[in-house]
Every structure is written in structure tokens, then in C-alpha cells.
Amino acid sequence: MGSIGATAAPTRFDENVCPQAAEDPLFGLMAAYKRDSFDKKVDLGIGAYRDNNAKPWVLPVVKKADDLLREDPNLNHEYLPIAGLVDFTNAAQKLILGPESPAIKDGRATSFQTISGTGAVHLGALFLSKFSEQKPTVYLSNPTWANHHQIFSNVGLQIKTYPYFDKKTKGLDFNGMMAAIKEAPSNSVIVLHPCAHNPTGVDPTEDQWKQIAALMKERDLFPFLDCAYQGFATGSLSQDNFAIRHFVEQGFELCTSQSFAKNFGLYGERAGVFHWVVAPAPGAQDAVKRLASQLAILQRSEISNPPAYGARIASKVLNDPKLFAEWEEDLRTMSGRIIEMRKAVKAELEKLNTPGNWDHITSQIGMFSFTGLTEPQVKAMQEKHHVYMTKNGRISMAGLNTGNVQYFAKAVDDVVRNV
Q: What's the family (predicted)?
């Protein structure tokens, strides 16, 4: 028998070819929290809704839809079409574009079910990389959802950033954002968060959205609208899709990614949709068919068929007026609890006379808040007080409740004064 030489390498992919990757910071934070045995530890890292008892919340309407599915004698586990569950994608299209959208009425929109919002962003990025006449530069807000950088760079697109968060005001750097958009070359892709910006919780006003759209139209820029929190920001589905509706009404060609993780609590079911809207022009319907045919090829090569369960749950709710109304109430429950926690945090900090202005806690919106804490302060929050958040000071407001908000505020007060 032969033997393996002593100098043989275990793999051809050595450390120069395939170096050790850094652990994903967010999932590393989750692991550190789970290892912590302190009884008052607080998890403000992961972007998932928790109820006032710090427990995952299955929406009552989701439970009802689940019961209906299980009782359906025709339920099976066959493959979905490549583009997904049609009843789901059609309803999702109306939800995000608006039921009276001119893009839907004119047949200028196509929709593909994806692996949640992440898969939708990836499908759009892949299409832009493969079919753009010249690969466009992608502009991301500074800061943005960390995964944006990986998704767009992994398909070979160049990334630049535009100013977004003003550290002094802890609000929107609107002038900086507009100046960067004005300088972006035509055909560049501008990635925008239509509501509940991740990670800052800072959104443009409706008037600012109109100014952004007008400038992008003038500069011939392509909007990529990543919508992960419709209905979760304000509690109003129609208010939270204002930016998308406005861009469509202004005649843009655009794409948008849509997640049902947060607003349905279907985190692990990975239910999402990618939508492409072509501009109103002769031949628009033929154009959207061509684009859809290529999106189908990309989808087939990546996942073949999307998963069915989460889509069926969401479809039941979206297509039943009574269940839909119950879902809207569930959304108001979640968004309302988060708003109350914002008020509570601010009130506690003001009661403690914590140095600084804390108005941004209540002026920011949605699941996340940029606290303004520095990296050393965040480190002290974790090491001294067992409060876990991302190193940039972003917290998930859903991790706060009436049982820990006072403890959290006292911890913030301590590190602001002493670190």
C-alpha cells in the first residue's frame, strides 16, 4: 500500500488562497450573549421582535393562518414554480407598490419570491451585475445594513457610499446625501431604505423623499429600494411605502426587495419577494417579459424553487380581508410597543440627568436606534453591565421591555459619565 507523504498538504486551498474569515460580528455578539450567565443580561443586538417578556412573539394572525393551512386537505409539499407562489407574489406586489399602482395597472412590474429580503437583494444585485451594459457603481448609505456590502461586492459590483447619518444631530445628513447623489455618475445604482433605516432609525421626510427622487431623475440614477420593515416602522403599511410609490409615480425604472421576516415574524421561514418595475414607455410590457425571463434563469441556477411554507402563511393573510385587518392590528401592537420603549428610555435618561441630548431616541423610528454611544462605551456596556449591542452603538429597541429598561438606562448613564 502507498502512503501519504509527510509534506502533503491537507487541501489545495491553503491560507494564502483561502484565509480564515472573521466571524460575522452580529452572530458573534449573539454567541457571546448566550454564553453569559448573568441573570440581568440584555440582548439588544439581533434585529428580531421580542414581547414585553423578552420572548419571541408568534403573531396571532400567523397562528390562525397556520391552522387554516394544516386543515387544508389539498395541502401538499410539491415544488413551487421558479418565480414562487403566484398568489403570494401578486399580493406582495400590491402591498409594496400600492394596489392602485400605475406599474401594476400597466403590466410593467414582475415579481419573484426569494429567500427573504437578503435573497431579494442578491437576486437584484446579480441581475444588475450580469445585464448592465457597463457594470454600475452601487452607492450605499453610510452606515447601512452590513450585509449590503457583501452582497453587492460578491457579484463584482463596485461600491461607494453617500453620507447619511449626522453624528452631531443624530439625524439625517440630508445635505451631504444630496451632494453625493448629485456627483454620482449617470446609471449609478443608489440603494435606499424606504422606511425604518437600518441601522440608524433615521428616515427622510416625505418632502425630502420628493427632493431625492427629483435629483435622481435629473441625474439619471437607478433606485434600488430595500424594504425590510413595511408596517413595522409606523404601524401604517401605506405610510411606510410612500417612497416606493412616489418613485414609481415619477416614472422611474427601479427594483425593490421586500422582506416578510419582521412584519410577519417569519424570520426562519425566509419569505421575501423581489420586484422589478420598468419605466412607462412603448414596449414596456415586452421589456418586463424579457427581464423576467432572465431573472427566472438566475433564480433557477441559485435556488431552483423558493420555499413554500412562509409564503403560504403570508399569502393566506394578504389575500383574506379579515386576516389582513388582524395583521394590521398585530403590526400596530409591535410598532406601538417599540414606540413606548423609546419614550421610556428617554424618560429614564432624563430622570437620571444623563449628560447629552436624548431627543434622537424618540425621533428615530422603527426597530433600531443609533444611541450615539462610542465604541469604548459599548464595550463597557457589555463587560460591566452585560448589555449587548453592536459596536457602533446601534440597539434593537425590541430587546427592551418594562423589566429591563430602567437597568439599561442606568447602564447608559454610567458609561456616558465614566468612559
A: Belongs to the class-I pyridoxal-phosphate-dependent aminotransferase family.
